[in-house]
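Researcher: Let's try something more involved. This one mixes different molecule types, so please make sure each is placed in the same coordinate frame as the others.
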Amino acid sequence: MALRHLLLVIPIILAVLIAGLLGYTTAQPKVASAQATIPFGGEILEAFWCTCSAGIALTIGPPVPGQYVFQFGTSIPYPFGQVFRPGPWVLGLASPGGTCSYYIGTGCSIYPVMGTIGIVGTSL
Amino acid sequence: MLSHRNVAVLLSGLFFIIPSIASAECFSRNLSLGMTGSDVEKLQQMLNTNPKSLVSSTGIGSSGKESPYFGNKTRLAVVRFQELYQQEILEPAGLSSGSGFVGMLTRKKLESLCFTTVFPNTPSVAPAPVPPLPAQIATGKAPTVLFPSAYSGVPGTTIVVSGDSFALQSSNTVYFGPYSATGTPRSASEIFVKIPDIPPGRYPLWIENKHGSSNKDAFFIVRDPAIPEPKLTSLLPARGSAGTPVTIIGTGFLSSGNELRTGVEVIPGISSSNNTSLEWTPPKSFSGGDGTHTIPVWIYVVNERGVSNPLVFTMQF
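Model: All components are placed in one shared frame. Result:
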C-alpha cells in the first residue's frame, strides 16, 4: 500500500520539479538577452515615439549607426540624458530584439528596430 | 570603430561603473577607515569626480590612481562629500559636520549619484584605461566628437572628449573657438585636453587632426572661477504631461540669455525676471500616449556662467 502511494506521489513531485525547472530555464534567456552587446555611437537623427509600446525609436547616424528603441523602464540614460530629440550625440550599448509599435488610428503598426538600448550616454 | 568593450569602458569611465548599474547597487556595505576592497576604490573614484571632494590631487588616491584602501585621505574626502550634501546626509542624522564614516545616508547619496552621476559642479574626469585601436590609424577618417565629459570648467581643468577616429600617432588639436590646445589621445575614441588659459565665455569645441576636422556642434563654457554656475533646486511640478507649465527654480540665472537644454527640446534666450526661476512648458508634440507611461526628461540651464546640475521632469504621455 505504501509502495503504491509512493508510486503515485513520485510522478507528482517530479512533475512539479520539471515544471519549476522549465519555468526557470525559460525565464533565464530573458535575463541573458537583456545584456547589452551591440555598441552604437553617433548623432540622433530621428526620435520616433512608439506610442503603442512605451518607447522611443532612435535613428543614430555615423560613426556607428543603427536604429534602436529606448524602452521606458528598461533602458538607462546616462548624463547628459538628452535622449528624446534629434541633435544630441549618443554612445551606448543595445541588445538584440525589442519592438517599437505606434498607433495608426485603427490599431498599432511596427516600426523596425535593430535592438533595445541598455545604456546610453549623450551630449548636452 | 567603437567596439563593445570600448563603449562600455568609455561609459564606465565617464559616467561610472557599468557593473554597478547591472547589479543595481554600488555600495553594499558601510565603509570606514582601515577597510579595503573594490568598493573603496569605487568610492574614491566617485569622490574624485568632484573637485570639492578629491581624495588627493596627486599620487595614490588621485584621479586614475585610486586604491582599495580606506585611509585618512579617503576619510577626509568623505567628510567633504558629506558636507557638500549636508541636507541629505548630515541633517537627517542630526550632524553638523562630516564624520568620514560611509553609513546608510552617505551610501544612499552615493547610490543616487552612482545612477545619475549628478554632481553640483561639472567635474574633471579620468576615464578607465582604453587600449589603443590600431585599426583606426589606417582608416584615415576625419575625427568625430560625441561629447566632452564636462561642458564647463575653469582654465587648467582636464576634460575627456569622447568620439571616434582620433589620431594616435600624430597630433590632435582641440579647438575652443579661436583658441586651441593639444589633446592627448588615450585611444582612438577618447582624448584628454586641459582647458587653456583663455577668457571666460562659450566656445564651440571641435578637434582637428591630419585626417580632417570633426563636427563643430559641441560647446564648452570657460568659467570665471569667481562666479558660481547656475544651480537648479526644484521643479514645480516635477511631474506632468506635455503642455503642463513647469517652473524651474534655482540660482545663478541671468535676466536674459539663459538656454534651456532638455531631453525633448532646446530653448535659447530665456529670460528670468528674478534670476531664481524660469518657466518652461513641455511641448505638446510629445503627447499621444495613453497617459500611463512616463519618461525622464533631463533639464539643464546653460548660460555664460556655466552649466547647471540636472533635474529630471517626469513626463507622462
